[in-house]
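Researcher: Following up on the earlier apo prediction. This time include the ligand. It's zinc ion, with the SMILES given after the sequence.
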Amino acid sequence: MIDLAIRNGWVIDGTMKERFRADLGVVGGKIIEIGRVSAAEREIDAEGLIVSPGFVDPHSHSDFTLHSNRDSHSTIRQGVTTEVVGNCGFSNAPVTDQSVISTVARMRAYAYDGPVDWRTFGEYLESLETGGISANVACFVGHNSVRAAAGLIGGEQVTDTHLKKMAGFVAEAMESGALGLSTGLEFTPGLFCQTNELEYLVKEVGRHNGIYTSHVRNRDSAIFESIQEFLDLAKAGNVAAQISHFNVRHDTNAPEDAWNRAVEMMMKARVQGMDVEADTTPFRTGIGVMTAILPEWLVNDGYEEVARALKNNLVRDRLRNECDRYWRFIHKGQWDRVRLSSSPSFPELGGLTFPEIAKIMKKDEWDCYFDILMAAGSAMDELILVGELFTEEHLAEMTSHPEFSLGVDGYTSVDHGPLSDVTVSQHPYCGHIEYLAHHVREMKTLTLENAIHKMTAKPAARFGLTRRGVLQKGNFADLVIFDAANVRSRSTIDEPRVYPEGIRLVVVNGVVVVDDGIHTGKRPGQVLRRVS
Ligand SMILES: [Zn+2]
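Model: Understood. Below is the ligand-bound prediction.
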């Protein structure tokens, strides 16, 4: 008898092929049949429902929260069976004496109170496996983390010794199964690096047949130079490359038609034979880093120094004019576009906009912003914002572009307890649902078959996740069964921490993890290591 039979469902297999009715059989973690399936230990009636490959998030930060949420509660309930993490230059390894404080600070900021007892990337991956995980995870090593581990915090001189050290960290990560290197060049300490440093490291990635993925330096006034730098690096390293959340934020001084012209650069590189793709996010809002608007001269000496400087009103006065970086609409005074996700020092302000915060704190928005940063001290880098970043039209052009995978750029969370309290935003709870309910069903921007392709087979192929992302005999049984007409988010801006409805069953490596909306507590997830 086989393990699991899913009967009478509409199969959307991930290849963009139109849906077809078939039964699907699972044995020992693999799909053994699609078509006629014999009797099974567990029989599931999927009459009227979609049977799809489990969703693969091409750009996630769930490594921030996995140690405090090994069950991946909020994302697995949306049908996400694999998350690609370690993005935007941030990973939890390598860790050295120079970087252990910042790594621990991040883990603590996301409610993990256990030991941070890994140093190498390999040890980190093992620590994920040892405690068990519900979903699969594949990891990039982050350039910011590599830099911090090499003892670089700002714009100091990068020596040959630094370069060799960093390349050594990258090599160790690659040999341990990292997918490749990610950069986050709007964030510290990555923003201080010169292109030659990146070239040195991307070449190391190339030697291991890895991938380069980048949150590029700039997506407004210097977007073309940034994309050019990215393409030059991918070429120099002879690597496959992914442009992370390739978008242009609304009203931030980008040139006319910037997104289309920048995407044209990517498409031209593809014609010339480069293996480059991109991904997007689902919401008009996005998650951001609070410190990233601060000018380089201020963050150059580390965040303890920033906290000290913020006590000085003369510094504050200067900053009111000079925080023109990253979310540049803040500099323009568009505070209604900015919400604080959470702050350990001001828990009552979580989820509020800055005009709302200003009313409560009885100060102007800038002083509130500086007070919140200052109170976090050296951990201010962990403070997260939620901003209104995109227009609906821009979302439509990104989600429908054939070379864009569909991700969320969030992290998995849970609807109660300490982690829940510090992730007050819709991103963990309904990002993937937004594609199915909003972009496919309401806006009709793309067909369900196309959306599922961009949420499964496309990112799986992109990141070399073999035998995943497509429903086919012999592939791993990562599956989601859902009601396409009724799948919807119940998460709202005022009450974001609510799971969606319409996701019936989620299976990871042949094991049922979500059964009629209920998490079974099973942890069949695997760390997916790069195979070259
Ligand atoms: Zn990013």
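Model: The radius of gyration is 22 Å.
Researcher: Noted. I'll compare it with the apo version next.
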